[in-house]
Known about the structure:
The complex is a heterodimer of chains A (391) and B (304).
Chain A: H1 17-20, E1 34-43, E2 47-57, E3 62-66, H2 73-81, E4 88-93, E5 96-97, E6 108-111, H3 123-133, H4 138-151, H5 167-179, E7 185-189, H6 197-214, E8 217-222, H7 225-231, E9 234-239, E10 242-247, H8 249-254, H9 259-264, E11 270-272, E12 275-277, E13 280-283, E14 286-289, E15 298-300, E16 307-309, E17 323-334, E18 338-347, E19 350-359, E20 371-376, E21 382-384
Parallel strand pairs in A: 3-8, 3-9, 6-7, 7-8
Antiparallel strand pairs in A: 1-2, 1-4, 4-5, 9-10, 11-15, 12-13, 13-14, 15-21, 16-20, 17-18, 17-20, 18-19
Helix pairs in contact in A: 3-4, 3-5
Chain B: H1 3-45, E1 48-49, E2 55-56, H2 62-67, E3 70-71, E4 74-75, H3 78-110, H4 113-124, H5 131-142, H6 147-154, H7 168-192, H8 196-204, H9 209-237, H10 241-246, H11 254-262, H12 268-296
Antiparallel strand pairs in B: 1-2, 3-4
Helix pairs in contact in B: 1-12, 3-7, 3-9, 7-9, 8-9, 9-12, 11-12
Amino acid sequence: MAERSPTAAPGGPFLSVESTTGSDGSAAREASSISLKGIRKEYPGGVVALESVDLDIRAGEFFTLLGPSGCGKTTLLRMLAGLDEPSAGTLSIGGVDVTDTPPHKRSVNTVFQSYALFPHLSVRDNIAFGLKMRGMARAEREQKVVEIAGFIKLGSLVDRRVDQLSGGQRQRIALARALICEPDVLLLDEPLSALDAGLRSQLQVELLRTQKRLGMTFVFVTHDQEEAMVMSDRIAVLNDGIIQQLGTPQEVYERPANLFVARFMGHDNLFPITARAGMTVTTPIGSLETEDHHEGKVALIRPETLELTSPGAPSVEPGKQLNTLMCRVVERFYRGSNVEYRLSHQNDEQHSELIAEISNTGERLFRVGDEVKVEIYPEDVIMLGDDEEGA
Amino acid sequence: MSQVDVVWRRRRRRETRHLLISVLPGALWIFIFLVLPSAYLMSVAFMTNGGFGQPQMPLTLDAFRNLAGFGFLGWSPGNLYTLWRSIFQSLISLGLVVLVAYPIAWYISMCRPRLRAIMLLAVVVPSWTNQVIRAFGWMNLLSPGTPLSTLAEKMGLIAPNMGLFPSDFAVTLGLVYNFLPFMVLPLYAAFEKLDHAQIEAARDLYASPLRTFFVAVLPQTLPGLLAGSVLVAIPAFGMYVIPELLGGGRSQMLGNLVASQFGEAANWPLGAAGALLMLLATLLGLVILRRLGRRLGGGTEMVI
């Protein structure tokens, strides 16, 4: 398939959608990888937003910067757009150093959190704005607007006024306004955070499909770990201006690099390790066998890996040596497709709480107060280091 | 007529009475102190000038002929020059005020909140001083022999020993200085509400800094700009003190013409005609600004 430059031949269908769609999403255009080297941002007054960040974002990737508010993810995004300048380090897009390039000279467009549509312009003029600034002729611009309106299915929205649009509609216009410029990189600053849950998941799917069809590099900022996992090819988890972990959603979720990442990804079964002998670690819920060779100070057991059976029942895998402990059901949350149990475990004088997420296969559910046998595979006992060790 | 109708009518009558009683004092005040004097002034404009400067019958259009420049000695353009100078001075000073006020308002809106209050005070406080005193201050700065005048002389901008005061330039300067706060305050209010994301969006979408101003800053601050324009241009048009003091009699504006007709020139009908003209010009200016505001604001009311 043909590589397309950012200044694709005018007049053709928008980004030649059909021809650039690869089955494996490999339709990436060449000039769209991002490389950050030693990027640091320090505000006057000594507040450090980013500590020396090194990051390579591949061409055509859906890349997410994930972290709590104040972690530096938005600052990083704004630097890519050119709206913030790094205090130190270099930033290149498509192999070209753009550290000192002003925003209006970068082939990068942004979908802002507040959408930032121009209220005094019609929707049509909002969408065509970037093209107009680049000096494209009116007839050509209008042709492009028609194409993008078909591509994102805007329908009659283009004829409305900005103040007549709902939140979801504004979001799509903001996306159209950025995409129509066919940038090397599209930046998205929590574009879905202002929308209600239903619309949000619908737009997540739309956004993801759009990205895959275009093969454009998307850099997405969010504080919602579920959204990050659904959307991303890779995720960088940030905290305190440092990348805590970089990896695929699966890696980040299943093998968090440290306690911060584990907590941020929503893990609750975290038990401090008091002693270790070979592959046996001592925790408040007793001695656990593990297959994790890493040194660690905390053991993580993901709630969906716990196996629950009645006290007298045979082991779920009789041939294998599983960690077994007896618990009592304290609370039960029925969620339809799965059931969450809050379990309490009494071990000598120590009391601990575990959370188990069991997929609802239609079998009998445990009731509050029931005694249950919990079995844990040794490979599901994961060692976590301290926060500082991450990266 | 049904029972309900009767009750409803009675209540409506009572509400009307309430409304009339509450509005009456204000209406009376306006009638006695605004409408009546204005009507008298307008009627004076159509009277004849008596031998001792008193307006008298019969009703004529002599005052307007006078105003247009026709006197005992035939036509002279003096009054038209005065009108033209009023329009020119108020527009020039409006333009300069806008140019000066925009950066000031922008800068103040970017300051820390505590500093903002101080800066705004610094803009406003001078206007608490009497206009005459401030005009005298400018006289002292611009008179022949002062450093500023000497500098202008050395640069060849003015003839030797003329000084920057009295002159049209001094009047313009005085007007700009005097009306600056009336533009800074509404602009500042507009800048405070500015959505900075729109500016960043424009920059992100390839707009140069200058185009960003016209696309993202100007439309958002337009209500402030138009409100400020009304507050600056209209009083400037009828300004009396500044041209009187800084113009030195050579840079009369309409306000001075009117004042002199009621005073030393003793021609009340001509003064009244001048006042009427001022009123009409002011209304015309307001209508234009209103239209402009509605057009640029996409149908919403922006001016008054």
